Structure formats: structure tokens, C-alpha cells
Amino acid sequence: MLQINSVCGIGSTGRIATDIHNILIQQGHESYIAYGRNLPKNCETAIRIGNKFDNYSHVIATRLFDEHGFGSKKATMKFLERIYELDPNIIHLHNIHGYYINIEILFDFLRSFDKPIFWTLHDCWPFTGHCTYFDNINCNKWVSNCCKCPQKHEYPKSIIVDNSNANYYKKKRLFTGIKNLTIITPSKWLASLVNRSFLSEYPIEVIHNGIDLNIFKPRVSNFREKYGLINKYIILGVASVWGERKGFFHFVELAKMLNTNEVIVLVGLTKKQSKLLPKNIIGITRTNNAIELAEIYSAADVFINPTLEDNFPTVNIEALACGTPVLTYETGGSPESIDTTCGKVIKDKNPQSIVQAIREIKQMGDLKSACIRRAMQFSSHERYNEYIKLYLNKCK
After folding, report:
1. Which pLDDT score, from 0 to 100, does residue 288 have?
2. Other CB atoms closer than 10 Å to residue 73's CB: what's the count?
3. Is 279 exposed, middle or buried (0-12, 13-18, 19+ CB in 10 A)?
4. How far is CA 186 from the centre of its chain?
5. 187 contact partners, CB below 8 Å, separation of at least 6
6. Residues of the chain by 3-state class (helix, strand, coil), percent to 5
7. Backbone phi and psi for residue 386, each to the nearest 5 degrees, phi listed first
């Protein structure tokens, strides 16, 4: 098995890849993860695609010419040599965006790869001309013809050129007509979008993301003492990158509406963002220490996910596994992780609605047991064994 992802063992997609890798190893299979950026974690057979110079060159091509996915030519050609050497029985793609691989070279190779290929879509980038999500601006150009992208300045940001129309048709040509390819989505929401896109020719499987319940579980720590939060009602938000899409400024507005005993804790902020915070928001930089993160989830009273666009955020199920109820906007696949026993789905996407939901969740009493029961459905061992079953069925 060869998995390909932008990162290895860090972030949600990186941890998904290593969780699958570890199950494969436990079952006696040979497994490798090829990645493009940062240092790998939890995988002794990780393969780096290119180097920092390749990444920076790819960033420049993206910023100036809107050619994301079409840089890293030499790095990708060299990586293909390693693929021929490994001769994997299966290739499993995850995020192929992220400034590290050339999709044209990769998919020209995959077209001749006479073995099963799986592709887990973690966002919408594979079937748009530029963006990773489009719900928040109600754009439907991706259905038939991306052009004049209204999100040119969003990831993957282009400063000068809008190449969305050419990118759309290049992707359509490259990504279609691949034999033995199966699409996997972590949410029913994304599966419904894929069925409307040019990728609809492929079989689609829905496998929800999972988490390690041996790590994400109720944990005792000194978190409240450390930050002076004894007897405070902690409202938690967690993201790998905080921006408008993740609802950063909704938390800033929410802070103005809270009672004196209520405090917001945000994990994953940059130093610049931390300087923008009011006094009743505590900012914590990003952590890749999962146990530390579980301790923070466990210390919180409620987890808020005001994401405006998302697929199936693992932060929701991480919070539930630690016994913390979840409030989320009715966005993408985010509501698929909760039910009425362990949280609430907020239809109106504004801080006032969050305040009302917090008041309602307080009245529901202790929800810890219900949260943990719900999280049991998302055990990484159970969810990612579904991948193994797919692999084995395709290899028969």
C-alpha cells in the first residue's frame, strides 16, 4: 500500500493516513506514506516528495500564475521512480494539493497503473478550478464551468492571474477516465457534491473519519489551574488554521455576549491572531500533541465549531470522545457527527444563535456519557478497517 498526502502524521488528513498505515502494519501488510511538507510523524516508512525548495517554487507558481498542482515537476518525476521501485498493489490518494506534487505527471502515470486506486476527497478542490470550498459564497460554477473565480485570493491564493477556467478543464481531463479508481468521501454531504461534478463517473464510498479512542478520551489535567479557569464555564474552539472560513471572528463577536463566568479558549491561533483577542478569550498556539489536545477538550464545558465550510471535521468527534458536547453550524458534513443527545446544530450562522445554543445545552445537564457513546461510532479502528475491506475486495 502506498498512500499519498500533503502531510504525514500531523493535521487531520495526516493522522488519517497514519491511522490507516498502522492498521495495515498490524495486519501484516507493507505500507508507505508519501508526503510533501513538514516532518513526518508515526510512520517509519514515510517518503518525502521533493524538498522545501520545491515547495517554495510551487508556491510562487501558485501566487503568480494560479497554477496550483502544476509545479513540482522534477520532484514528481523523481517520486515516480520510487513508485516503480516499490511496485505497490494499491495506491491511495488523499490531499494532492498543498504545493508538493504535479497532478499532470501523477495522473498520467495513474492512467497506466493497472491496479486499484482509491482517492479520499477531504475537500472540494479536485473538482473546482481553484477553491477548496464554495458554499459560503453560494458559487455553483464548479458544476459546469469554473471561471472568474471570486475566491482567487483564498487558498490556494493567486495574487495576479486567474487561471480557474484552464485549471478546471485540465483537472476534468486529468481526473476522469481512470480505470480502477474509487472515490471515498468522509461525509454524505461531500458525496452528494461529487455526484454533481465531473467525478460522478466513479463509484463513491462514504467512510466517516475516525479517531483513536485510546488517546481521545476524558483526561484529568491541570489545564484549568494553569490558565486560572477554576469555576469558569469554558467554551472551546480548535482548528489547525484559524481564518474566516473556520469562524474566527464569530468567536471574537461571541466574546462580547458572554457572562462574566464564561471564557473562550481557542487552540491553533497564530501570534498575530492572539493579539486581536479580547480579555475573555485565551489563545493557545497549535499543538500536534494529541494527548495535550485531549486534556484541553476534557477541561472544556462545550465545544463550538462555527465553521462556515467543512467536510467532516474530526475536531467534533475528538471533543465528543472527551465527553464534551458539540455545537456546530449547519454546514457541510459537520452536523453528521452529532445527534440530539450530545449537541446541537445551529441553523442561523451568527454569534447570537451560538449564545442561545449554549444556554440550551446548559439546561440539558451532564451530557458526558451521551457524548462518549456517540463518539464510539467513530473509532479509527472501526472506520479505517472499512478502508482495509475495500482494499482487499478490489485486490481479489
Report:
1. 74
2. 16
3. exposed
4. 10
5. 206, 208, 311, 312, 332, 333, 336
6. 40, 15, 45
7. -65, -35
Give me the mean pLDDT over the 15-21 stretch. 93
Give the model confidence (pLDDT) of 196-206 as tens digits: 999 999 999 99
Cell of 200: 460522478
Confidence of residue 373 (pLDDT cuts 50, 70, 90): very high
pLDDT digits (tens, 9 = 90+) for 231-264: 999 999 999 889 888 999 999 999 999 999 999 9
- C-alpha–C-alpha distance, residues 130 and 360, integer Å: 39
> How big is the CA angle at 23 (ends 18 and 28), to the nearest 5 degrees?
120
Q: Could you give the strand order of the β-sheet that contains 2-5, starting from the edge strand earlier in sequence?
A: 46-48, 32-35, 2-5, 91-93, 117-120, 181-185, 204-206
Number of other CB atoms surrounding residue 196 within 10 Å: 13
- pLDDT-based confidence at residue 360 (cuts at 50, 70, 90): very high
- Record: fold of 223-378: Rossmann fold (3.40.50)
Read out DSSP for 205-262? EE----B-TTTSS----SHHHHTT-TT-EEEEEE-SS-STTTTHHHHHHHGGG--TTE
Please tell me whether residue 93 adopts helix, strand or coil conformation.
strand
C-alpha cell at 326: 458539540
Q: Which amino acid is at 368?
A: K
Euclidean distance between CA atoms 201 and 209, whole angstroms: 24
* Reported confidence tier of residue 11, pLDDT bands at 50, 70, 90: confident
Is the pLDDT confidence value at 396 over 80?
no
Say what the pTM is: 0.92
Instruction: Specify the domain boundaries for CATH 3.40.50.2000 within the chain.
Output: 2-210+380-395, 223-378
Mind listing the pLDDT tens digit for each residue in 282-302? 999 878 788 999 999 999 999
Q: Does domain 2-210+380-395 have CATH number 3.20.20.70?
A: no
Beta strand 117-120 with 181-185: parallel, antiparallel or unpaired? parallel
C-alpha cell at 177: 477516465
pLDDT at 12 over 80: yes
For 140, residues 6+ apart whose C-beta sits below 8 A from its C-beta are 134
What's the pLDDT score for residue 287? 81
Say which residue the cell 489547525 belongs to.
240
First to last CA, the chain: 15
